[in-house]
Structure formats: C-alpha cells, structure tokens
Amino acid sequence: MHLVSQEERRVDIGTVAGLVIAVIAIVLGIVLGGGSVGALIDVTSIFVVFMGTLGACVISIPLARILKLHTVYLQSIFGKSTDSTKTIRDLVHYAEVARREGILSLENMTSEMDNEFIVRGIKMAVDGTDPELIQTIMDTELEALMDRHTQGKKILDTIAKYAPAFGMIGTLLGLIFMLKGMEDPSTIGPSMAVALVTTLYGALIANILASPVADKLAAKDAEEVLVKSMIITGVMAIQSGDNPRIVESKLLTFLPPSQRKAFEEQQEAA
Asked: Where are the domains of the chain?
C-alpha cells in the first residue's frame, strides 16, 4: 500500500524572504553609511565568535543533536504544510462512511487516505483496539513529535544565547589588546573598530540565523500539533460511532471563528 502524505513539503517563502530582507537591510546600512562589507570581515573575530559559540553548544547539547543542525534549518525552509480544513472534511467523510456502512468498511479506504497519522488511528479503530489504548498511543506519538521539535528549537535557542556573549568576549579581548598598545594613538581607532566587529557578529548570528528561525519552528510546531490533536479527536469520535455532524462540530472547535465560518460557508455552497 502506498500512501501519499497530505503533509507535502514546500518552500516556506516567508523564511527565505525574511532572511533575504534582513541581509539586504544590513548591506544597505553599510553602503549608505559610507562603509564597505570588506571592512567588517575580520578572521580573528570570526574565529572567536563562531568557534566559541560552537564549543558552548557542544558542551550544553549532545553532539549527535548538533550534527543535525542542518536538518533543523531545512525544516524551517522546506516545512510541512497541512490543510486543517481538508483534514476536517476527510474525517467527517470517514465518519459518514462508518455510520452508513460500519467502521469495518474504513479498512478498504486506508489506501486512499493521504495522512499516515489518520491511517494509524483508523486501523486501530477497525481492529477493535480499546478506545483508551488508541487515545494513549496517539497521544504518545504526538508528545514524541513535540519533544523532537523542542529539541530542534533548543539548538537554535542555545546559539542565540551564546553568540552575543562570545561577541562580547571578543570585544573585550580587542579592548585589552588596544589598551596595551596605547603608545601609538594612531592604532586606537582601527583597533576599536576590530574589537566591535565581534559584537556585531554575535548580534547577527543571534538575530538573523538563530532566534527568528527558532520562532518559525515554534509556529510550525503549533500548527502541526493542532492538526494532529484534531485527528485524534476525529478518530476517537469515529470509533465511538458519533454522528458525522457531531464529529464536524467537535473538529470545528479547533479552528478560529473566521476559519470556522469560512468552512461552514463552503460546506453550504457545496
């Protein structure tokens, strides 16, 4: 049996556009301020901030999770998209079939279902699994999903926490070396500029590459958790033999009033 997942991966335009806008804003700030991008590149500062932040992350987070950082970024850019209204329509349809032909009839429809989480729930219901056990299994899977998402977000939160700190450490080092070379006043300005570059690096990492992406992952997690909670409610309602209208009413409570009204209008038009 081949399942075509309803949760299709697509490019998140918001994440990509946001990163591009942030970079453009910084570059324009440099150019309009009369500076140059090359003047902000300092190998020592890069080493202190990037390697220092990496070291702090390796200390605080298991290395196996750190090595999956690229997958965390891919999730923010190529995230899963789930249509909650389609999920409701599908679950109500399955409830109608179960009400009309019996819940065992849904076994022949699993190949048509495009959400694996629904399939697992329906299969357990068709097999006559105890309702409490179905609820427990599906809730456990949802909790495991939330934990995985939390761990991914934690990596970015850790980077956002330590990058500015190492930027400040680099600045302090630069100031120390500058003060030791006060014999030549002409070197104070350039030395101060280099010292401040490390603070800039830390702020850029935290406020462009870490915190915003972590917030996007949190938003995606909330969306996915909502849909899966909706599915659990729908499966349990189907298992208990609820009227399709009752199933629909239960599921609509997950939607905000505006989406709920739009859904009802679409159903009436259909």
From this structure: 8-269
